[in-house]
Amino acid sequence: MKTLRVAAIPGDGIGNEVVPAAVKTLEALSKISGDVTFEFTYFPYGCEYYLKHGEMMPKDGLARLRGFDAIFLGAVGNAELVPDHISLWGLLIKIRREFQQSINVRPAKVLKGVRSPLADPKGFDLMVVRENSEGEYSSVGGRIYQGEDEIAVQNNIFSRKATERAMRFAFDLALKRNNHVTSATKSNGIVYTMPFWDEIFDEVSQGYPDIETESQHIDALTAFFATYPEKFDVIVASNLFGDILTDLGAALMGSIGVAPAANINVNGNYPSMFEPVHGSAPDIVGKGIANPMGQIWTAKMMLDHLGEEKMGRHLLDAIERTTSKGIVTPDLGGTNTTEDVTEEVIKQLH
Ligand code: NAI
Ligand code: MG
Questions:
Q1: Which amino acid residue places its CA nearest to atom 36 of ligand 1?
Q2: Residue nearest to atom 32 of ligand 1 (CA)
Q3: pTM of the full predicted structure?
Q4: d(CA 167, CA 201)
Q5: Residue 127: which of 208, 67, 88, 182 has the closest Cα?
Q6: Architecture of domain 1-101+261-350
Q7: What digits encode the pLDDT tens for the residues 107-117?
Q8: Domain 116-253 falls in which CATH fold?
């Protein structure tokens, strides 16, 4: 029997509602599948912790988290207690940066029974792999002069290392899926970094002869997301392009409450972190109606990442059987509670 040691950080707001729901689901899954057990250790880091201690997590917080197989995070942020930039940078971004979680992966898939804003979503099922450590979001640049002479410069940093890393990850992922990778480029407009991106995409693709590839300019690709999302399998994108595409992907799924994300450390030196896309949802906290699907789905991504793909598939099947029965929370047009949905997912696991 294998034991997976998971650091759970429910965080703020509905994080405290959806993390317990997902943990309950994982525990039920473990009983059914029988070959993996989970050992959850809870960390109370978040805005209330900040009020008591003056920091989002203790000085040795990262050292405490480092030895775990994965980090399972709810949401961070309670602007009534702590300004968002402090809570976000003191916990979430700190973990992503220090643990070299240089790749962000987000699936977009139309779940059975969930209404996509697309008239005909044709069962799309894709994954966006976003480079998450540099690119357009590198803080290199500056401003000079004032008034009408004022100038602002923002540099894009593309290293061979980080670019290759994101692309390899995308190709490896496609091998486990439908053997197709699309590169999001803009080499017709951005004439240094994007041709470099394209060259590396070509080079990396040589090592994957079984994978079909295609490059699309980001503007066209965004339009194709809405017109034929079912044609995509894995998409690899730079930090900015990936950021935009993934929000569109989440919107096409029907509610932010179902969208999951993974922050992946690929060198194995630190744990990866799994979280839903949504935040702490202060407007619905305590009402018992938070959609737990995003959190449960990110548990599936955690299982996949830790090599338990069979359990991951089992979990996603149970999620889809639940949505297809119409047992969904109000954000998806339903009348069910967090607990109803969680209980149904557990029932569907059996
Ligand atoms: P939000 O994602 O918390 O909420 C946006 C809207 O979606 C709200 O109407 C909310 O009720 C709804 N919603 C979100 N998750 C839901 C779920 N699981 N089920 C049903 N409805 C759901 O974004 P918002 O309001 O901009 O931010 C609130 C706080 O969360 C802020 O402090 C922000 O900084 C933080 N935040 C944290 C994130 C993280 O931890 N990764 C990501 C986004 C925001
Ligand atoms: Mg975003």
A1: 279
A2: 77
A3: 0.94
A4: 7
A5: 182
A6: 3-Layer(aba) Sandwich (3.40)
A7: 999 998 899 99
A8: Isopropylmalate Dehydrogenase (3.40.718)
